[in-house]
Amino acid sequence: MEYNDVMTIALAVLTSIITGGFVLVFVEIGNRKNRENDRYDQIMSPFMHKLSSYFRFISWSSSYIIYQKPFKGYEEDFKKLVDKIARYGGRATVSGGDYGVEYFTADELYHIASDINNIWYYHDKMHPCRLTWDARMQGTEDYIAKELKEINPVYLQANRDVDLVAKVSGEFYTDLYQYIEYDTFRHEAYQKQYNLQSIVVASFFGFVLLVLGLMTFLKIPLLLLQCLVLLAILMVLICIPLLAVDVKVQINWMNKMREYMEKNKLNKDKHGKW
Fold it and tell me: Along the 274 residues of the chain, how does pLDDT read in single tens digits?
């Protein structure tokens, strides 16, 4: 086969790969990523609204709690957590809105939720509880009531005291956070996989464009040109599993690959260089 014939076929194949291969795959990955974001927003938007209200509730309530000195048992730990959560509430109050869906990573949200649950836990371990509620404080009762209503209107019927702070914290963890905990880590894993897919497709796309550019300005040897076209076709075949195989399965493959590499690295560190 003459060089011009191979050149014509190569141009047809490479342009088809770009328009009918990589572009379509890239668009479909973007569509799936957008659908995942929409699903996550529907789940997380109500939760983040309640979490922001909880932060503000703790921020307002922290001014009412009276601590006896010196601290005993879990009292100091309780105070540290309340002050820590109150700072989130202070930022939410200053901003005048709720924290965004993507503001915290799944790991950050997990640790925040653990701190919230520990507010209940440390209070539950106080025997007896020496913390009291300063009823003389005035001016923020309406703000506390507003945030309690956003979390769960049933709390409006309860007495405002330290026990309520612990009760709201414990129930927030069990009734709200644990319901969405899996979704936060799932969403992050899916997003990372979609981003990886986009990088792979974009790299393949750039490779084909480079080959087309070289064909325009240089006379590529016949054998090399044939190899480049075959490599481009192989890249399209690699992209097919990105759409055909479920993302969850792909993530499992990636995790197993990482575990295998970490295991080999550990063995290499133990026994020296192979």
Answer: 566 777 777 778 777 777 777 888 888 899 999 999 999 999 999 999 999 999 999 999 999 999 988 988 899 999 999 999 999 999 999 988 899 999 999 999 999 999 999 999 999 999 888 999 998 877 788 999 999 999 999 999 999 999 999 999 999 999 999 999 999 999 999 999 999 989 988 888 888 888 888 887 777 787 887 888 888 888 888 888 888 888 888 888 888 888 878 777 766 665 555 4
Q: Could you give the CA distance from residue 102 to residue 86 in angstroms, rounded to a whole number?
A: 20
CA distance 11 to 48: 52
- Type of residue at 81: L
